[in-house]
Amino acid sequence: MLYRVIDAQDLPGLVAAFMERHEVVAPVRRGSKHVFDVISSPDEIDLDYTTTVASPKKYLLPPRETLMAYNAETNRIREYEAEITPRVIFGAHPCDINAINRLDQVFLESPYADPYYAARRKATLVVGLSCMPDDTCFCHLWDSDEARFGYDLFLQSLGDRYLVSISSVEAANILEASCDVREATDADRIDFRHATRRRQDAFNQDIPDIQEVAMLMDAFHSDPYWAELGGRCLSCTACSAVCPTCYCFDIEDVLAPDGKTGVRDRIWDSCTAPQFAEVAGGHNFRPDGRNRVRHRMYHKLNGFLAAHDRMLCVGCGRCVTACKANINPIEVLNFFKAKGSDDALDAEGDPAGTQAKEA
Ligand code: SF4
Ligand code: SF4
Question: 4Fe-4S ferredoxin-type domain location, by residue (predicted)?
């Protein structure tokens, strides 16, 4: 890894240099919130944000994309030739870069790599940006508070300058050509350590750090808690829409009215939608909120970990804000914290756990 330092005032020049050959997607303000959007000027970017409403996932995995078109009369299909736009995702925080790394695992590092995702990913540069957590951030619990790979440049803010981690030649060339780049000094390294410490101290200490959550989920798989949690679910699917790592999709054939031509589309799907696990014949493998919400939490905090050695949740906190029924991984951590308190009381001679229930 190569480290360099640039002045903060050079940043618009860096963005402008990227814009010469790329579409630049960056955080912009929308009312009181921030979203990732395509910019037409560096002035539109607002890097002073904690979390965007949704992640930049849609620029790699669009909510709807056509995979192929077919003609029943000629019996031919037109392979989807991706009109790929060279793109820069600028200003992504570590959780979102780690989320992209999860998507890479799913769509690239499998026996059947996804050509649509692969083409977009290959044409995308990622410029990361340091951040400060708000009350709903818990990326540090899942080791997603630091991006160790998956970006081309990473900008660590040191106030009036940035310490830049460089990991691609293409991005390094653009950086060199557009900014006054210098070597990092001892003062830069000291300021970097201070910034890192300030950030670590800023995480919400009220969110329980329960590292064995996956194991506990197996132990409490049949607990009535899941029915209570799932019973609140409105099936609105907002949690999946904002989540940077939700990748489930449906395939839809859209026929022209004459039935002769059509397209095959891929569209986002969500495991909290009632029809998600419904199969031909009408049977639904997850017919109620209990099963659906439990499945979602298992995929985030248990199943993906078993298969890929890391949580699927990166602790971005977006679903904490998006879910109006207060269903999110922090709730699950709080449940296990409470369970731990119950068990501790039971072990101290309160077999019925009455003290904990009354508390
Ligand atoms: S489950 Fe929630 S906190 Fe975890 S990555 Fe998805 S949106 Fe973020
Ligand atoms: S868990 Fe919350 S956000 Fe997700 S579908 Fe249910 S109510 Fe909607």
Answer: 222-254, 304-333
Q: Nearest ligand to the C-alpha of residue 293?
A: 2
Q: Is the CB of 244 under 6 A from ligand 1?
A: yes
d(CA 24, CA 334): 39
- Return the residue matching tokens 């691609």: 168
Return the residue whose CA atom lies nearest to atom 6 of ligand 2. 233
Number of H helices, E strands in the chain: 13, 11
Burial class (CB in 10 A: 0-12, 13-18, 19+), 2: exposed
Distance between CA atoms of residues 305 and 319, nearest Å: 19
Q: Which atom of ligand 1 is nearest to the CA of 314?
A: 5
Q: Looking at the DSSP assignment, which residues form a beta bridge with residue 37?
A: 26
What is the atom index within ligand 1 of the atom nearest the CA of 239?
Answer: 7
Judge contact between 338 and 72, C-beta under 8 A. no
Closest ligand by atom to 327 CA: 2
Cβ 272 under 6 angstroms from ligand 1 = no
Cα–Cα distance, 271 to 296 (Å, whole number): 6
| pLDDT at residue 82, rounded to an integer | 61
Identify the pLDDT of residue 359.
Answer: 29
- Dihedral pair phi/psi, residue 224, rounded to 5°: -60, -15
Q: What is the mean pLDDT of residues 316-330?
A: 98
pLDDT for position 237: 98
More confident call, 358 vs 260: 260
Cα–Cα dist 235/288, whole Å: 10
Type and span of the H or E element at 89: strand 87-92
Spatial distance between the Cα atoms of 24 and 230, rounded to a whole number of angstroms? 39
The ligand placed nearest to the CA atom of residue 298 is 1
Give the residue among 300, 310, 309 at the shortest CA–CA distance from 240.
Answer: 300
What is the per-residue pLDDT across 93-128, written as a single tens digit (0 to 9) for each?
Answer: 999 999 999 999 999 998 889 999 999 999 999 999
